Amino acid sequence: MNEAVRDRLKTSPRALPIVLRTPSLVLAVLGFLTVVALGLRFAGHSVPSAFDAPLLPGPDLVPDPWWYFATAIDFCGEPLGAVLILLLVIGGCLLTRRPRTAVLAVVGCGLTVAVTSVLKPLTGRTIHGSYLSFPSGHTAFATALALLGAYALAGRLSRGAAVAWLLGLALVSGFLMAWAEVGLGAHYPTDTIGGFAAALAVMPVTAYWIDRLATRG
Predict the structure, then answer these.
(1) b/e map of 15-40 (b: 16 or more CB within 10 Å)?
(2) What residues are paired with 127 via a beta bridge?
(3) Terminal-residue alpha carbon distance, the chain
(4) pTM for this one?
(5) What does the CA dihedral 106, 78, 117, 98 come to, rounded to 10 degrees?
(6) Is the Cβ–Cβ distance between 183 and 70 less than 8 Å?
(7) Within 13 Å, how many C-alpha atoms sit on residue 43's CB side?
């Protein structure tokens, strides 16, 4: 690695603020356990669970004008939308001299989506016949972005305020994407819970190791 780049990474703000390190790693464990539990519970299933059924939309899905709102949210998790958002986030991180956060945007979000992509064929849960659905990659990506934002903005907050900010931003972002995915008929509600949990499991651990590697030596 170029010496100037290494020095910049070493002195830049942490990807995972100290104030959020312990709470985030606890959430990572809970997220991992949730993904495993739901994956085992719904492996090979092709019908909604008793929890899912009351939350699913009717045959016409989300009515107008909410359909357009749901579609816009869904686009943010599509490949083109996700790349555009990540480019904006990375640019913002570099402009504000947060290279570790920029690395987390690429590596953390990438790993989060990769985990959901690997888990889909492993669990084998399907919707609408043959579409692999667990866990929701869109929800995982939205939650990963929310965690990224929470880490970037929580450094100067007290622990209580930082944790509240972390949970609030993750829940709101995850819920909005989950609502869109379920409303558009792309996922069961429990798929979106799995995606939310996958982001909780991946992002804190990735951020922790980015900080460790950046300060090594």
Answers:
(1) bbbebbbeebeebbeebbebbeebbe
(2) 131
(3) 12
(4) 0.94
(5) 10
(6) yes
(7) 10
- 3 state DSSP class of 153: helix
> 131 - beta bridge partners?
127
pLDDT tens-digit series, residues 41-99? 999 999 999 999 999 988 778 888 899 999 999 999 999 999 999 999 999 999 999 99
81: amino acid identity, one letter: G
Write the CA distances from 41 to 6, 19, 104, integer angstroms: 44, 34, 31
Q: 148-160: string of b/e by CB count within 10 Å (b at 16+)?
A: bbbbbebeebeee
Q: Which amino acid is at 121?
A: P
Across the chain, mean pLDDT equals: 93
Contact 100, 13 (CB under 8 A): yes
Name the burial class of residue 141, with classes exposed (0-12), middle (13-18) and buried (19+) by CB atoms within 10 angstroms of its CB: buried
Listed residue (198, 194, 192) closest to 179, CA to CA: 192
17-45 tens-digit pLDDT: 999 999 999 999 999 999 999 999 999 99
Q: CA 201 to CA 83: how far, in whole Å? A: 22
- Residues 151, 208: Cα–Cα separation, whole Å: 11
In eight-state DSSP terms, residue 96 is T
